[in-house]
């Protein structure tokens, strides 16, 4: 039986290198025109579509935020464990910002959860 080619985009090392360099130089959310230019440049190194560029930047930005959140979480956990502050409980979640809470607020209020997760909804 013949193999069906994968529809998932697999960036070449050259494409990744260029995308990462652009990200390091400050490109975070390229507009439609920039996406076309980037796609044209990267197509020299292999198959690519504009949507691949769009989603790469979107995913890369999200992963960078996750890494930062994890580093901050680790930092605050270390800070609060070494200072042994008895009047605070540390609260760290992937969904909410990192901050200490007084013990009488051990569970965040629903309002706080709504505020921390309030971002523009993107249709699927």
Automatic annotation (TrEMBL):
One of its GO terms (biological process) is plant organ development. One of its GO terms (molecular function) is DNA-binding transcription factor activity. One of its GO terms (cellular component) is nucleus. SUPFAM superfamilies: Homeodomain-like. Keywords: Developmental protein, DNA-binding, Homeobox, Nucleus, Transcription, Transcription regulation. Residues 4-68 bind DNA. Belongs to the WUS homeobox family. This is PRESSED FLOWER a. It comes from Musa troglodytarum (fe'i banana). The lineage of its organism: Eukaryota, Viridiplantae, Streptophyta, Embryophyta, Tracheophyta.
């Amino acid at each position: 039986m013949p193999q069906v080619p994968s529809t998932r985009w697999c960036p070449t090392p050259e494409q990744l290198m260029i995308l990462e360099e652009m990200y390091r130089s400050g490109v975070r959310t390229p507009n439609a025109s920039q996406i076309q230019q980037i796609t044209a440049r990267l197509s020299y190194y292999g198959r690519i579509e504009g949507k691949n560029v769009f989603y790469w930047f979107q995913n890369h930005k999200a992963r960078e935020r996750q890494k930062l959140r994890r580093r901050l979480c680790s930092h605050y956990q270390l800070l609060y464990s070494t200072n042994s502050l008895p009047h605070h409980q540390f609260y760290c979640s992937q969904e909410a910002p990192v901050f200490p809470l007084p013990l009488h607020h051990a569970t965040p209020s629903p309002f706080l959860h709504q505020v921390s997760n309030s971002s523009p909804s993107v249709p699927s």
